[in-house]
Design brief:
By secondary structure, this protein is mainly α. The protein contains 37 helices and four strands. The strands form two sheets. It has a two-stranded antiparallel sheet. Strands 3-4 form a two-stranded antiparallel sheet. Helix 25 packs across helix 26 and helix 31 packs antiparallel against helix 32. It is globular, with a radius of gyration of 30 Å. The N terminus is likely disordered.
Length: 846
């Protein structure tokens, strides 16, 4: 270790204020609630940029004062140089270069922070001070995380469950529900878990090296941190915790002075802790059960995104798609078998997949180089003689946290988060300071002045480039405020200016298009409606030019064009379907556009494809509208014929066969063909289908069969069978299906329709109440990297048969993920879309 320097040996001015500013902004984005989302909102995005700029200025100040730059040593300078070269190559080959430059600039901020800290960490006192600062910050993070989760998630949910209980519904708190996992403060449970994997070993080391009350303070932080990690219910977090425990035990065996009995007791206690976490968390239990039963479950989501990453990287082997290109190109590379799973995403939930997708071979090589550099540095340190006990504790603890995070990084990508990346920079800088065996290993470089003036020039050039981007962000924020105040002219003016300043951002055009289209749906003036629709279509067309691989843009443009230009609508729907073939409502929209072009045969094919992929849509009251009611019998026949053909092509061993029989049996039940329904459902049908078939034939299902029904279905059937208890049972069935309270008007509609029904099939087919709504684009802002504007909804208004959709959906199963079904339907889809593209244009139109 380098000898401690006296105060006189240190430079007189090391940019203390810039260092403090860097630390303050790092702490802000660590503790700011929902920081990972607010970093893409105005004005927080500007503060985030200052947080990236501060370490750059701090490093340049150090270089200017010292006339030299302190190297990292241990081969890390070569690793940084390789990273910078990879960023240049990736940005040069990016299909969306502006986004690539934006993210490459943030990487420069993190690298600058690493070098600035490396220069500042000249004494053991400074190193210890940085560790204590990070320890207090991590403790504050844990306390804030638990406090926010308790106050904003746990207690409100327990209160809601108590309300449910008053209606006779015994629901339990479940971590299987995404919204109930601990998101605070960063914004997502996996981010919180990733941060904690770095914080827990740090706090443990602080406790082991402290004494008195401070020791118990740090140990209390470890205990609360474990509780916090549990509340995230993160699979990657649990895996990382297991790695932490293993490495901790390995360290005890190597350096601990405990007897075998103590070691055995610690091993048993650690194993018991991990088993207790597994046994007490319903989400972890479901994952374990799924693995034993051979079901991928949520793991399929990760495999899907790894395949997308592989496709992206393979298509751009030497450059990748460019940093920031994943959400913009995701649907272009999304496989057909994905169905309705993961229709759009911000990141690929795997750091190797993300790096390969965005940087190609450079990304994979960089990941391998980092692992080698970590192993090399740890090996060099291991060989150091006479290591102090405190140093052993610190290096092994921080290294364990780093390795645990590396394992979690296989299942998630978090490097875009300032709090986590900042923590990684601090840990890396400290480990580098421990790993160097002598001061000479951190060499200075003679190109300091070149780097100094070059860095200043780069900051100046990038600032000029960033100015219109931030100005556009600010203007859009003002525009959305005007929209909230119903000042539409001001909204249009601000968003148009923002689009002109940053024409490569599709977000502004999409928001103009969606909001104008949304306003058109609410106005009663035909001329005003047409003008709004025209402005909306113009804006969506601009967005499609800028970002052509977004299904959202094409599908909503299609719904707007439907009433004015059905041929153009067909093209827009076809473009959207080429990106997400299983998106609900799109083949229905395509069918409407074809029907308006006097193409009933093609329309029937489109409607059939909609119903084959989303069979419950067969029960929608939309088919009873004047435009479609006469076509509906032909549609049912078409769907049955398509099912027959698919079954003929499907082998008896295929996993698709049971699903096709279930759909055909449910369709036959819906059509009243009970003999065909019996043929399909007796062997392959769900319990719901078999019970409904028995009731339609005036048979009484056995108690054993009824007991195996889904709870919500059984409750709804009880409401039909026991009129005296209908209000209570309908409320229970609604709560079990939606996790919300049933409104009085809707309850009255249900009671009235049930009282008027002659039998259960007649109620379900003809008399059932309907649900009308528009599907929300949840997470649209996060994926777009802008959250200032409203969250859009599709223009397509869904009209659902309430009981069939909520309570008896198993009769016509519509799985989110059905790879065999999507692959079987794809040739039929492609054939239809090709026919649509070849349709002649109407006279007078291009």
């Amino acid at each position: 270790m380098p000898p401690a320097s006296s105060k006189a040996d240190l430079p007189s001015n090391e940019g203390r204020l810039l260092g403090l500013l860097t630390a303050a902004l790092y702490a802000l984005f660590t503790l700011l609630p929902n920081s990972n989302s607010l970093m893409v909102a105005w004005p927080t995005v500007f503060i985030w940029q200052i947080a990236l700029l501060a370490p750059m200025l701090w490093l340049l100040w150090q270089i200017g004062q010292r006339r030299q730059i302190q190297g990292l040593g241990l081969g890390w300078d070569y690793l940084v140089g390789f990273t910078l070269l990879g960023l240049v190559v990736s940005t040069w080959g990016a299909e969306f270069p502006q986004q690539a430059r934006w993210y490459a600039w943030s990487v420069l901020g993190y690298l600058s922070a690493l070098y600035a800290l490396n220069t500042w960490l000249q004494t053991p006192a400074r190193r210890q001070g940085l560790l204590v600062f990070q320890g207090y910050l991590s403790s504050a993070f844990i306390l804030l995380s638990l406090a926010l989760w308790l106050s904003q998630t746990l207690l409100p949910q327990l209160d809601l469950l108590q309300q449910f209980q008053s209606f006779g519904v015994q629901e339990k708190f479940s971590f299987s529900t995404l919204e109930l996992r601990n998101w605070a403060p960063i914004g997502h449970q996996n981010y919180v878990a990733g941060y904690l994997l770095l914080a827990l070993p740090l706090l443990l080391a602080l406790g082991l090296t402290a004494s008195g009350k401070k020791r118990w303070f740090w140990f209390s932080g470890v205990g609360l941190g474990l509780l916090d990690l549990y509340t995230t219910s993160s699979r990657g977090g649990l895996l990382g915790l297991a790695v932490l425990c293993f490495l901790g035990l390995l360290g005890l065996i190597r350096w601990g002075q405990l007897g075998r009995r103590w070691l055995l007791g610690i091993v048993i206690a650690t194993s018991a802790l991990l088993l207790l976490i597994l046994a007490s968390n319903d989400r972890f239990q479901a994952i374990v059960r799924g693995l034993f039963q051979g079901q991928g479950g949520e793991l399929t989501y990760r495999l899907l995104n790894m395949e997308v990453g592989w496709r992206m990287g393979s298509a751009h082997l030497w450059t990748g798609v460019g940093l920031g290109g994943v959400p913009l190109l995701y649907q272009r590379y999304r496989p057909i078998w994905a169905g309705r799973e993961s229709e759009l995403i911000h990141q690929l939930h795997s750091t190797p997949a993300q790096l390969f997708a965005e940087m190609g071979l450079w990304g994979l090589a960089l990941g391998v180089a980092v692992i080698i550099a970590l192993l090399y540095g740890l090996g060099r340190w291991w060989q150091k003689p006479d290591k102090p006990q405190a140093e052993i504790i610190w290096v092994w603890s921080l290294s364990s946290g780093l390795w645990a995070y590396v394992v979690m990084a296989l299942t998630d990508y978090q490097l875009d988060n300032l709090g986590i990346s900042g923590f990684l920079v601090i840990v890396s800088a400290i480990l580098l300071s421990y790993g160097r065996c002598s001061p000479q290993e951190a060499k200075t470089h003679p190109l300091a002045l070149t780097l100094f003036y070059g860095g200043l020039g780069l900051i100046f050039a990038v600032s000029i480039w960033l100015f219109p981007i931030h100005r556009a962000w600010q203007l859009s924020n003002l525009g959305f405020q005007a929209l909230a105040a119903k000042n539409i002219p001001a909204f249009e003016q601000y968003l148009t200016q923002a689009q002109q300043l940053a024409p490569w951002e599709a977000y502004y055009s999409n928001q103009l298009g969606w909001n104008f289209g949304n306003l058109a749906l609410t106005t009663e003036n035909p001329q005003e409606r047409q003008a709004l629709q025209q402005r909306a279509m113009t804006a969506f067309a601009k967005a499609a030019q800028v970002s052509p691989y977004q299904e959202f843009t094409h599908s909503n443009l299609g719904w707007l064009q439907l009433g004015q230009d059905p041929r153009a609508a067909s093209r827009s729907f076809a473009q959207a379907l080429s990106l997400v073939p299983a998106k609900r409502g799109l083949f229905y929209g395509l069918g409407l556009s074809l029907l308006l072009q006097q193409q009933p045969e093609l329309a029937l094919q489109a409607f059939s494809l909609e119903c084959l992929r989303d069979p419950i849509f067969i029960t929608s009251p939309l088919w009873r509208t004047p435009l479609l009611i006469n076509l509906y019998p032909q549609l049912l026949t078409q769907v049955r014929q398509d099912l027959d053909r698919l079954l003929e092509k499907t082998s008896s061993e295929s996993e698709l066969k049971p699903l096709l029989h279930q759909i055909r049996g449910g369709l036959a039940w819906w059509m009243g063909d009970y003999s065909q329904a019996q043929s399909d459902l007796s062997q392959y049908g769900t319990t719901t289908g078999q019970v409904l078939l028995a009731l339609a034939q005036n048979q009484t299902p056995s108690p054993q069969t009824l007991a195996t029904l889904p709870t919500v279905t059984r409750t709804a059937l009880q409401a039909w069978q026991t009129p005296a208890q209908r209000p209570q049972l309908l409320t229970q069935a609604w709560i079990e299906a939606t996790q919300t309270l049933l409104s009085k008007p809707l309850e009255q509609q249900l009671l009235t329709s049930l009282a008027q029904a002659q039998n259960l099939p007649q109620w379900l087919r003809q008399g059932a109440p309907v649900l009308q709504y528009r599907r929300q684009r949840l997470g649209y802002g996060i994926v777009s990297r802008h959250i200032d504007g409203p969250n859009p909804e599709d223009f397509f208004r869904v009209v659902d048969n309430l009981p069939m959709t909520l309570w008896f959906a198993d009769l016509l199963p519509s799985p989110i993920l059905a790879p065999a079904l999507d692959q079987a339907l794809q040739p039929q889809r492609q054939h239809l879309l090709q026919q649509v593209q070849n349709l002649p244009s109407p006279p007078g139109r291009p």
